[in-house]
Amino acid sequence: MIETQTDQKSELLKNLEGIFVKCGERAAHYDANNLFFQEDFDELKEAGYLLMAVPEEFGGYGMLLDEVEQLTRKLAYHAAPTALALNMHVYWTGLVADLWRGGDTSIQWLLEEAGKGKVFAAGHGESGNDSPATYSTCKAEKVDGGYKFTGHKMFGSLTPVWDYLGFHGQDNSDPDNPMVIHAFMPRDTENYEIKNSWDDALGMRATRSDDTILNGVFVPDELIVRRLPTGFKGMDGFVLGVFCWALMGFANVYYGLAQCVLDKVLEKLPKKKSISFDRPSMAYNGVIQHDVGEMVMEIEGIGPHLDTIAREWSEGKDYGPAWGIKIVAAKCRSVEGSWRVVDKAMDIMGGYGLLRKAGFERLFRDARLGKIHPANGYISREFLAKAMLGIDPDLQPR
């Protein structure tokens, strides 16, 4: 009998359930020892997790954003750093697959490489740049046959295993028309170095988001995928896809983490007692019940919001420029709501929550990073307000 694509997808989903649990069992070890999630990576790659957004024509499972985000949050429930780092690969394959299905085959090579098992990472993070992908502190210089890039990239998740680093730089050779140059750098490229900067980071340690220093790195024209004006006027389908797939991935990672924290509270709270409280447990304390209720309301509000955005993107709903508003708002709403859930959990758990064996302090640290992922809360509110008020988001001074 010939196995259909539906059968293959069902087998993938079944296999991933067990692997996700094992990832959760290893998460504390990775965090405590500043280790990359190598075993998680190997098992998930072997199972096909990295191929879920790659179209069937290139050896993948052809999942759209709505399906992908369900798996992202399920993995994050067990191992948020693993889900966060792999999101950097998945968002490249997902956004390029969307472009390919829409008739833009200019980056088809990426899908071909991903189908062969190549791993893609993201190099958009830069110190002093709160609007990544639309501006860059990295210098891009046009030379014969391509561009040379010089700059310092931060938060390079998947550092130990990537085959291609997708990043951007800014070409200021024409001061009146600066351009953002989007490129992919193969691992064997010369003139770059990886700086170990992630030991004992506040959270998400297993992502190994080390820095990458570009020292005049040459990228040939065939790996230059976009040349766009700086700022939001350069927001074409490629950049919008970066924002959608990346930010929706972030949103679902922290949502999955918050779901895990709430479940832990519901499990442990009935066993928490106080000598001054003449009840079976602190679960009967009215103030604590209030906070648990607040946590539940946060969780119940986040999920449907993210599901709606992912479904409508997958259906191809045409919101035009308003897609930016919807994507940024959903990400900000999710990570801030998830943080409130985790913060309240630490209040409820009290001193016990500070202990590593309790399992809360690690999740508390991991959750905090959601608020600094682009777009952070400050620029999110600035962008949303300007967009709704009809103010040019690129208007200077800000």
Distance separating the two termini: 63 Å
DSSP E strands, number:
8
What's the CATH H-level superfamily name of the largest domain?
A: Butyryl-CoA Dehydrogenase, subunit A, domain 3
* Strand line-up in the sheet with most strands: 1-4-5-8
Query: With helices defined by DSSP (H or I, 4 residues minimum), what is the helix count?
Result: 9
Q: CATH top level of the largest domain? A: Mainly Alpha
Short overview:
The protein has helices at 5-33, 38-47, 65-101, 108-115, 237-268, 286-315, 322-349, 360-368, 377-389; strands spanning 120-123, 139-143, 146-156, 164-171, 179-186, 192-195, 210-220, 224-229.
Provide keyphrases for this structure.
about 400 residues; Butyryl-Coa Dehydrogenase, subunit A, domain 1; Butyryl-CoA Dehydrogenase, subunit A, domain 2; Butyryl-CoA Dehydrogenase, subunit A, domain 3; 4-stranded antiparallel sheet; oxidoreductase; membrane; Acyl-CoA dehydrogenase; flavoprotein; transmembrane helix
Task: Summarize the structure in words.
The chain crosses the membrane at residues 237-257. The protein is 49% helix and 14% strand. The radius of gyration is 22 Å and the shape is globular. The chain has helices at residues 5-33, 38-47, 65-101, 108-115, 237-268, 286-315, 322-349, 360-368, 377-389; strands at residues 120-123, 139-143, 146-156, 164-171, 179-186, 192-195, 210-220, 224-229. It is an alpha+beta fold and 398 residues long. The model has no long low-confidence stretch (mean pLDDT 96). The strands form two sheets. A four-stranded mixed β-sheet has the order 1-4-5-8, with helices on one face. A four-stranded antiparallel β-sheet has the order 2-3-7-6, with no helix packed on it. It has three domains: 5-115, Acyl-CoA dehydrogenase/oxidase, N-terminal domain (Butyryl-Coa Dehydrogenase, subunit A, domain 1); 120-233, Butyryl-CoA Dehydrogenase, subunit A, domain 2; 235-389, Up-down Bundle (Butyryl-CoA Dehydrogenase, subunit A, domain 3). The relative contact order is 0.11.
